Amino acid sequence: LQSWSERQLICTYICLHWMFPNLSPIPDVLRHLPYLKSLPPPDALLTPLQFTPSELEAFQGTNIYGATHDRQECWSTEWNTYQTFILAVNPNWAERFTWDKCLRASTYLSTHTFPSTLLSRSPTLQTTSSSYLFMLPGMISLLVDSHLTV
Predict the structure, then answer these.
(1) What are the residues whose beta carbons fall under 8 Å from the beta carbon of 77, sequence distance 6 or more?
(2) Greater confidence, 133 or 68?
(3) Tens-digit pLDDT profile for residues 63-117
(4) Closest Cα to residue 102, out of 12, 35, 1?
(5) pTM, full prediction
(6) Mean pLDDT score of the chain, rounded to an integer?
């Protein structure tokens, strides 16, 4: 875990919530499940990695086609890393840590996060070497609601 990026750790943390969705009461270590349940469901995610193969083929010859394959290769490699680690901890958990869960968590991290500089005294969307990504509960709901009413 020492070599994992912050993004990889957060992706794993998010997926752990979906691996144990029916725990009651929700353990403190998985206390973000209500927030994760408020995010768009998997069938509402419309990034190129959620496209069908034929939909993606329609973009062949464009930058989006190559970028999508590059991102899928990167995230797939990360998922294999997660799987190897989790398999060593608990084989049953590794079975639950699916590519679909990883893709969904990675998609949220690439589309529903903001740089911490947004919370500074002089808010900005510019990142710095000391900034980090965070998810701001409620902000996405506002953006989605405003998009739906436009």
Answers:
(1) none
(2) 68
(3) 999 999 999 999 999 999 999 999 999 999 999 999 999 999 999 988 877 788 8
(4) 12
(5) 0.81
(6) 86
Q: How far apart are CA 97 and CA 93, in angstroms?
A: 6
Look at residues 148, 129, 136, 79 and name the one whose alpha carbon lies nearest to residue 112.
Answer: 136
DSSP string, the chain: -TTS-HHHHHHHHHHHHHHSTT-SSPPGGGTTHHHHHHSPPGGG--SGGGS-HHHHHTTTTSHHHHHHHHHHHHHHHHHHHHHHHHHHH-HHHHHHS-HHHHHHHHHHHHHS-EEGGGGSSS--S---TT--EE--TTHHHHHHHHHHH-
Amino acid identity of residue 136, one-letter, is L
What does the block give as tokens for 83? Answer: 């799987």
Closest C-alpha among 4, 3, 9 to residue 105: 9
User: Helices 6-19 and 63-89 meet at what angle, rounded to 10?
Assistant: 70
Sign for the CA dihedral angle at 95, 4, 134, 113 comes to: negative
Q: 142 exposed, middle or buried (CB, 10 Å; 0-12, 13-18, 19+)?
A: exposed
